[in-house]
Amino acid sequence: MHDQVAVVGMALRTSGADDIHQFWDLLRNGRSGRTELSHADLSRRGVPSPRYTHHEYVPVTYPLENSLAFDTEAFRFSVAEAEITDPQHRLMLEGCYRAVENSGHYIGSLPGIVGVYLGARPSNHGALIGRELWEQADTLDLTRLGIGNDPDYLSNRVSYKYGLTGPALTVQTACSTSAVAIHLAVQAILAGECDSAITGGVSMDLQDAGYLYREGGIYSRRGLCEPFMATADGTVEGNGVAALFLRRLDLAVADGDRVLAVIAGTAVNNDGRARAGFAAPGVVGQRTVIEEALEVAQLKADQIGMFEAHGTGTSVGDALEVEAASHAYLGKGGVSRSCRLHSIKANVGHLAAAAGAAGVIAAILALRHEEIPPNLPLVHGVTPVELGATPFFLSDEVRPWRRGKAPRYAAVSSFGLGGTNAHLILGDADDIQFPRQGQRRGWQLLPLSADDPTRLTDTVRATRTLVEEACAEDRHGIGHTLRTGRPALGVRTCALVPADPAEPGAQWSPSDTFTEPGDHSPDIVYLLPGQGGTASDAAHRLYLAEAEFRATVDRGLTAMRRFVTQDTYARIVAAFEHGSHTGDTQVAQPVLHLVSLGIHAVLEHLGVRPAAILGHSVGEVTGACLSGVLSFEDAARAVCDRATAMADMAPGAMFAVRASVEDLHGLPEGCAVSVVNGPRASVVSAAADAVRPLLEWLDRRHAEHRRLDTSHAFHHQSMTAAATRFAQQLTQTDLAAPRIPLMSCRSGDWLTGPEAADPVYWGGQLRDRVEFARAVRTAATRFPDAMYVQLGPGTSLVRAMQLGGVSPDQCLAALPGEGADAHKSLLWTVGRLWERGAEVDWAAYAEADSGLRAPAPPRLLKTTPILHPSLSGLTPAIDPADLDRRTASPAATARTEGAEDELQPLVEAVTGCWAEVLGAAPAPQDDFFSQGGDSIAAAQLVARLRSIFPVDIPVHLPLTARSPQGIARALDDLFIASIVNS
Questions:
Q1: Considering 183, 350, 480, 581, which one is annotated as catalytic?
Q2: 115 pairs with which residues across the strands?
Q3: What is the DSSP-derived secondary structure letter of residue 412?
Q4: What would the pLDDT profile of 117-158 be if each residue is shown by its tens digit?
Q5: Is 423 annotated as catalytic?
Q6: Bridge partners, residue 228, by sequence
């Protein structure tokens, strides 16, 4: 498959169709995007009355709806840059984005070397702006004007915007442009110049509001494009954009891409002088290019079921095309009336530079839907030409084209004025054996994002509808695509759905909030609980569900086997393999340790790493392992030794009490406050014979209390001998300073290197009071904006963080408690961390949950129309009513609130100059680059500032200061320096 090229994504916009689904509906139902304009329409659009009242004027167009719409923020353009950029370039940029998105990939993170092969029709957009602004030299930037309009930069801009490093070529062969671009892209992939390629074309004429008919020309007097009809009298220009994403077939299959079609063969040639004139078609060249494509594809003509023709709609051009194709097919095994002839020009007009790519998309849609659409003119009763004994036939209805044992093939012709011909053959892929998918998670985690809350609401709604109607296989594909094929945008949420729709329970578990994470990934602080929560059920579920968890636990079990009795080891293993529960300290603490290590391993594999660790009681020993104080094997021994030493002490009990330390003054003998979790959250430990007196004491004071699942009184004077014994055992262990900040629960402050290396510290740590409330204050002071994640079972530590003033939105519990599905809870934690800006390695996630890419809701883009002010009244193709949707000039609503009072005049000056250069006024803290700035814009901004302020302003200032307030401060410093040095 390394010598075949697959089409894995496509995007299209034409008259009457905003996407490929609407395009197929247009073709299948024999409809047209054609529009006839009234005199009132033409007058409103600025067409001169003498022109549109001329008896030869044809007021027909194939308009492209929202042709000026562009999302400057999504494509990182300033408003000024977007205004000066040819709308064709903007449409092509969006078309490339959509084609890759359609494949289930994100254009900004494509693997391998990606080429770009695009083309556009000639445009006078830049020339019109240049003419209108020629007298305003200070506002006319010829460099930016050239970049925004010259075809040289069309493909380069796409490569630059998305970091694509393959060849970037702009193709110009008139009407065959995009077909030739596809041919070049295919050749580049086969030659190894790139692994994949984005290719296509765009045709958008801002002047298109009808035309003056000229006898002998190529345009229709009646304003009807009717290829292969007896009444055909010419063509009508259309407007549209079409893009394809191509990949080497073996790479596409390995990546789980949907293979929409395989390109079996392509050929390109030129008529040379074998034509009646430069603008006339040539039979020999057309016949030869078709024969060459068949030879490359190693196919006979009778294997082609659909022929998407160039179809000029002129009587001469159509006749010559049928003659050339018939000669080629009959000489290559063609059979009379075996191939369906079709041309989309009847539906959408002649798309010029986009025609070939649009024809390919039509052919692919026919293959995918197993139908060949009707010839539009026949649907409306027009008489076709006589095709006689040619291999071709026409139809006025949809014709079935079922997939069978043999692959089906469609051919697409595209011929350029001047003689450059292209012919493409594409068809079904042979039976593809996708790599066997590995173990799938029982829940599909769906990360969802958009550029603002309104669009995210729509995205959530669309995703929910799609998921609830999907089978298990499609659910898996949707989840995989959302995780690996969509960008993480500024407003986020997530959802969980059962992988199997037949699974009982909720079918859709969305996050209840939308989150707007900051520019930087948040710090993450791990909370490791002590004994008191039940871990066995979670241990069992996660052991079965997560490979990284299981591998870590197995490694830990292997290490622990040497340090515990055979019976104890068997019970530890049973907790993971069978979910057996026990509160026995010798089992509970090792299980808790391994559960926390296992969850850490899962999160680490996904790229999530802690900035600090807070361990509670035995959790601090686990934290010592994660922070580097103890090796993995030494930590396993330490936990087992610690648990055994504590278990050998006299039994006792522990009670969580809703009371402060002061409230607990005067406890009965044999009782002590062993843990302080918050202002009114304490734990009291009691010797066995002190339990009854303690309960009576608590009841008399109406103190709420709950017995914890422990067999002993930890952090209690009864543990003194255990502390000494454990410290002695650690003297033979290498102890290091923590590499990650680790909290001491004895002091409530960060563990120092000397403390970490002192066995006596670790002995006292199991006996002395846990000052967790103090630890919370210390952590919250250092990491006020962090996400606090409790790795072990329960929610006790996240509640303690909240009692210490940390926002509930910053607290997550990976295993929130009894009755919760531990695996679902862990995945939910991953999703919530991603919501809040944490980097999650979705490729690593896919190692245990990979899938085939599937259609998923697209990114919703703004549709604000953008047109350079100088072109007002000069674009008849645009209905002025469409421009009324533009917002008021951003420069008129400059935001400077929040700036320092003394810098306010400077901030306002910078804001005004910024708006002139980038087209939109910023807020004081807006970033120059995020608003579309670059080195050219920086030079322009500095030039404007120099004309206002008599100081030497460095040309790179906007690239370093980067915000209006920052630039204003820098200017203020320059003023002071100029005074001091004068």
A1: 350
A2: 197
A3: E
A4: 999 999 999 999 998 887 776 667 788 899 999 999 999 999
A5: no
A6: none
